[in-house]
Amino acid sequence: RLRTAILISGRGSNMDALIAAARAPDYPAEVALVLSNRPDAPGLSRAKAMGMATAAVDHKIYAGREEFERSLQLLLEAHRIEFLCLAGFMRMLTPWFVSRWSGRMLNIHPSLLPAYRGLDTHERALKDGVKIHGCTAHFVVPQLDEGPIVAQAAVRVADDDTPESLAARVLQEEHRIYPLALRLVASGRVRVEGNRVLGALRDAGQGMRA
Ligand code: GAR
Q1: What global pTM score does this model have?
Q2: Measured at the alpha carbon of residue 117, what is the angle toward residues 133 and 73, in degrees to the nearest 5?
Q3: Do 59 and 92 meet the contact criterion of CB atoms below 8 Å apart?
Q4: Number of other CB atoms surrounding residue 28 within 10 Å
Q5: Among the four 7, 25, 125, 166, which has the fewest Cβ within 10 Å?
Q6: ipTM of the complex
Q7: Where does (6R)-10-formyltetrahydrofolate bind (predicted)?
């Protein structure tokens, strides 16, 4: 099983979904480490309580991004990590780090990329009046919120949605597609050609299955 680290900064609900999925005996990845850049992340204490291996690398004590990332890298090597899942990890990563994990790092983003890169995706989607919103699991490349898309799920926008209500429905879909995306990639059922992931799933509704 692929030794995977989950990188978080906060709540860690996607972390929970990945940990739960990886408990299945036939799941091709195991969660070998939960790593946070915030020592006080709620997800980190939850992971600890579940008996997971955890670590915190507080970005604030490092002079720069590369020093911080060198620390991350050493820790990942010490735990013999082979694959990374960013799950609400709110630090930008340098090309130095990203290139080291090229093809071996996934992210979950709360929009249908390439729409709504960056922050406040739900608020911006509501402002634009879009009728369909969603989430994307994708490989990480140096450009923020770009990279080959492994899985997406769409969510209908309701007239009375608030950023919070929309976020909650999108989050449910994140919890569904992120474990699916990791399963597909870890089992070698997809291949990347340029910016495209072939063999991946597209989802026009709630029905995507691995
Ligand atoms: C999730 O909605 C995730 O998609 C988003 O942060 C939230 C983390 O929640 N990520 C980003 O916005 C990345 N740019 P979680 O900590 O409960 O998984």
Answers
A1: 0.95
A2: 125
A3: no
A4: 17
A5: 25
A6: 0.99
A7: 65, 107
Whether residue 14 is annotated as binding a ligand: the answer is: yes
The question of whether 109 is a catalytic residue gets the answer: yes
Of residues 59, 109, 122, 133, which has the active-site annotation? 109
**Which alpha helices (H) appear in 51-162, and where do they start and end?**
65-78, 95-100, 121-128
Q: What's the 28 CA to ligand 1 centre distance in angstroms?
A: 23
Residue whose structure tokens are 């906060």: 10
The pLDDT tens digits for 128-182 are 999 999 999 999 999 999 999 999 999 999 999 999 999 999 999 999 999 999 9
List the residue whose alpha carbon is closest to atom 5 of ligand 1.
88
* DSSP secondary structure of 21-75: HHTSTT-SEEEEEEEESSTT-HHHHHHHHTT--EEE--GGGSSSHHHHHHHHHHH
Q: Is 195 annotated as a binding residue?
A: no
